Amino acid sequence: MQTILYAIPAFGLVALLYTAIKSAWVTKQDAGDEKMSTIARYIAEGAMAFLKAEYKVLTYFAIIASIFLFYLGYVGEKSSPIIVGAFLIGCIFSALAGFIGMRIATKANVRTAQAAKTSLSRALNVSFTGGAVMGMGVAGLAVLGLGSLFIAFYYWFVQRSGASASSEEMEIALEVLTGFSLGAESIALFARVGGGIYTKAADVGADLVGKVEAGIPEDDPRNPATIADNVGDNVGDVAGMGADLFGSYVATILATMVLGREITVTDNFGGLSPIILPMLIAGLGIIFSMIGTLFVRVSEGGNVQAALNMGNWSSVALTAIASYFVIDWLMPETLNLRGYEFTSMGIFWAVIIGLIVGTLISIITEYYTAMGKKPVMSIVQQSSTGAATNIISGLSVGMMSTALPIIVLAAGIVFSYSVAGLYGVAIAAAGMMATTAMQLAIDAFGPIADNAGGIAEMSELPKEVRERTDILDAVGNTTAATGKGFAIASAALTSLALFAAFVGISGISTIDLYKAPVLAGLFIGGMIPFVFSALAISAVGRAAMAMVQEVRRQFREIPGIMEGTGKPEYDKCVAISTKAAIREMMLPGAIALIVPLLVGFGLKGVFEEVSSAEILGGVLAGVTVAGVLMAIFQSNAGGAWDNAKKSFEKGVMINGVMEYKGSEPHKASVTGDTVGDPFKDTSGPSMNILIKLMSIVSLVIAPHIAVRETPPPAPETRPDLEGAIQRVEKAAPAATAQYPVPAKQVN
Amino acid sequence: MQTILYAIPAFGLVALLYTAIKSAWVTKQDAGDEKMSTIARYIAEGAMAFLKAEYKVLTYFAIIASIFLFYLGYVGEKSSPIIVGAFLIGCIFSALAGFIGMRIATKANVRTAQAAKTSLSRALNVSFTGGAVMGMGVAGLAVLGLGSLFIAFYYWFVQRSGASASSEEMEIALEVLTGFSLGAESIALFARVGGGIYTKAADVGADLVGKVEAGIPEDDPRNPATIADNVGDNVGDVAGMGADLFGSYVATILATMVLGREITVTDNFGGLSPIILPMLIAGLGIIFSMIGTLFVRVSEGGNVQAALNMGNWSSVALTAIASYFVIDWLMPETLNLRGYEFTSMGIFWAVIIGLIVGTLISIITEYYTAMGKKPVMSIVQQSSTGAATNIISGLSVGMMSTALPIIVLAAGIVFSYSVAGLYGVAIAAAGMMATTAMQLAIDAFGPIADNAGGIAEMSELPKEVRERTDILDAVGNTTAATGKGFAIASAALTSLALFAAFVGISGISTIDLYKAPVLAGLFIGGMIPFVFSALAISAVGRAAMAMVQEVRRQFREIPGIMEGTGKPEYDKCVAISTKAAIREMMLPGAIALIVPLLVGFGLKGVFEEVSSAEILGGVLAGVTVAGVLMAIFQSNAGGAWDNAKKSFEKGVMINGVMEYKGSEPHKASVTGDTVGDPFKDTSGPSMNILIKLMSIVSLVIAPHIAVRETPPPAPETRPDLEGAIQRVEKAAPAATAQYPVPAKQVN
Prior knowledge:
In chain A, about 65% of the residues are buried. Chain A has one domain. Chain A is built from 22 helices and four strands. By secondary structure, chain A is mainly α. Chain A is about 80% helix and about 0% strand. The longest helix of chain A has about 45 residues, at about 170-215. In chain A, helix 4 packs antiparallel against helix 5 (about 170-215) and helix 6 crosses helix 12 (about 405-435). At the A-B interface, helix 5, helix 11, helix 12, helix 14 and helix 15 of A face helix 5, helix 11, helix 12, helix 14 and helix 15 of B.
């Protein structure tokens, strides 16, 4: 049994070894001529400046949160101050994951540009390897962290006292481990929101003055905001996405472990099998993601998308097959969670359901945002009557695009529940997240290629270089859309798993909307994603305005800037984005952290008939539903507007006339794209972290707001109760059938 | 007791008498010169053409629905085919309310224009009296219909068999009465959605070609779509709003009655007091609304808004005071609903809470949409960088504006529940709706004044006429915003009351989000308002495109049209809007009607541990939460964009420069306003009806999907159970305290 426990961090170490080797390989590649290196250095420095500023602020946050956690852990009955250690390691690992991703991305971008001088194949190789370094780094850190902390806490809390795998001691061990997830997700929130604000403030600001007012192309070195714009791609799309998936990955595994503890089994692993299964599946996913990367190869003129799909599908399929054998070997034949019986094969099917849900939602997302498909074409058509109708149709496409993903998600919930109860819902999420390393590799490849294109443009490299990076970039736009779909689906399932875990730990047996305070909580929860989105969007608006004024000032005051003889002050624009991002991420971040505390502690004991934990459950349900809807709506509307605009580059037929770039309909579509920018890159993706973080905070405080303040008498003292229940059942079978006394209270 | 029952329809008759007298008075007023009457006739004919076309389609709908209802009523145990009669009367009354409103509005508009030649005071008098006719007509029909049907069904189902007020017979009587509400709300849905599509297709179409392309002012008689635009004001704002509030009014009273039946009391009214209280409060509200209209008087140069407020506040205050005495006289001192004890004074406080919630939400709505306030000014400021930033800030304002209303609503739910249980939540809604007649008078006054201005413009009346109607119109814009806030708040509370009633009738004792299918239902429900909005918005987009093409064609093909010598073909534009509205209202309407049937009947018996009624409860909760949020978001964003645009008429200071109509920022704000049009007048207000209608459909099918298929044994056969429970309680007090066997199952 020990062996299997130690295998988990070993998987993580293997991934980190891969990261180190591949990272060295990327660094060894040719970084091009001096002009290229200079631009790349600007971008790398800007990115690192942002990270440094962000991490400085987050250090203060981590200290304050640690004090609070220490206090909670100290006073609570079923908790321990050791949670602070887990929390801090979670923070550091998450920050480290962001750092690794940012560092490799800012190295790979210029090397991809240089490689694109030779061939498409080499350019793909460099950019995708960059992505893979990030993906493996994130997954490796997560599995290493979770695995080794679990071993430590298992030894400290459980094994030392000889307690069982489903004991209260194990509950405390896992509760302490939740700190790791809390740390990871907190950093992720700030990274995602801050990064999202950064990238869009720079992008919108650069476009509004550069493209619209001054009439110079994108990525033109004369535009002072162009470096900030390229930094933003790394800050938002690489570090933000990485932190998001790191958080989901950890939270999903953890939630499944917490639910697994409630399952009492007799197996060959000391009853630990339901707890360690999610970590093992994650470990397998890492190995098969590595194997999958070998399939990502393309020849000159070949299909890049097909190569990426090949890599993705092979890793997914191999993981699915392997999980069958692992589950069959590890798990006992039948299990029972909170009175719901299921089989080990049910767990396998839940993994498959998770994979299907993730895939379907990715495909649907692609349909709603892809060029040439009906939704985007409808926006293109409506651009002919101006910006207003373009916007109206984009909003309509975004809202409509919620239908299918929600149906898939709802079906996924019901099916995974029916095959393996709440453990099934959690394991479905874990299955979906198993190949996170590969997903991230594909995701991170996009912005690297995008950056490479920017560097090629700014360094005035030959046309064929830009053409090659454009091929990669176009594929990157599609993978960005599907990646967002994947991130939303995973966040939704993760939140549900956390939700189920929260219900278990807080000791409530229902979250009953029939009770007025719970219903009120649902409303409050539902409102939060709207307010959070509003804050994120208006933050971008404000920051973009500041950027616009700075760029205008430089155009006005720096002599020769438009002729290319005067040098723009890139650093000023970088500083504006950095400052705005750091400042504006505070309030939304605080909301996500504080609302669960306010509800959980503030309403404790206020209502006689409803516990604050149950009301908090209502809030979480509201946040999750509205958050998932707003995430899909905003991300897809933004993606669709973006591609409606891009459709004009090759020309589109509207009312029998071919319209190209520069036409009136195209201008209308540029307005739509600008509206969509904060939707798809700031507020939309932030929803994922919002719902996860609020669930994790709730899970962390769950033992402190639990309703079982006077613990029920131990089973052996309550034979009378069971007898009485049997008598009740005999007397009135109909009534007790309707209101069963929950099984877990009895045993 | 009989007296008090008969008093209820008598209140309705008084209101209708008032309607008849005041309607005759309006008709007697001078309709102006021939040009004015001709234009007014065009508008009236267009409005009636729409109503005729709409009612024709709805006749088919009513027939199909009747067959289905007859079948349900026939096969069900706790139902009766008589529900078809109630349903049809509900349909007819709702249609009649729309007809009365439309007819008086299209008479009052031209007479207001004529009166404005003399004085502001006379113009207000005519337009407000027109509104009052509509308000009293709607309230009168509702109270007359509900009151007399209740008397009939009470006699038929209850009194004949000598059953008590809380008997199963009474349950059937009220279930049949629900048909009236279903009829009212179904017609309301189509009126609201169809009207909303009509008005915005005409408005957007008229603006895009007339104002933007041809550069002619609003309401210019050369614009072929101008009549359709003015018809739209009546179709959407008058008939649509009227049907919406008619539906809310009826549904609220009914839901409270259904909950009231579950309260067993000993009073001087045969135990009927909790059932008839909501009807009595509504009747009182009518009388005090009439008295309130007397306060709406203004002198030349006086404050119109203050006059309307005076009328509103006096009717609200008088109703509140009167309800104290009625409750004190009618209700027993203590009551009990589903185990929740409360006092008669608790009911009074619930009324007050309802009034406060409605008022606060109206005030908040006004803040977010009023000129000169911070939210609108932020949109104005962001217009300086173009349409994109204008749109972004409008979306942000709309999302942010959900926060306070939801907090108020949540507090309202919790407080009204704590003073009088679920009956309190319902009575709060009833209290809020009591002065519906006055609310509607104030609401309908706006579009009448708006139309009067249009007629003045088209008839080229002297400048001071337009100035006077503009004063009224400006106030009308504010009342429209607060009216929308009121409509949303009332719909939300109504839905909650219906939700509570549904829970009672369907026999479920929890709606537990902890069960996976219920959670999946919550997701599905939450998605529906997004899809519904998307359909409504895209319908406007399509219809507006058709309108644009028609107006362009007329400008191109009719000689002398721009010089005023060629006559535009107004009827063609009217026909386009009419056809589009009728066609496009079908699908969203069908969704609202069919989803509850699919979930309720389709999932019946599918899940062992969860009833379809409980899943449907989850769906309803999702619809209500997301629907209320989307209603507030869309209505307020639209209102704010509108007033941001209007701010430029008097000039605004942006970055130190005064900007006026015609400036670049103003053009950006016109784009925002166009985007906001379908938001605030089509999809936003449709949310209200969507959530109510889905709740009512669920309430109607509740007895057919009820979980108590094998009814629990009658109390007298179950002494054993009570004894056993007492023994259980003795054995393990902690466990049973946590899982009380619900009281209603025991008695």
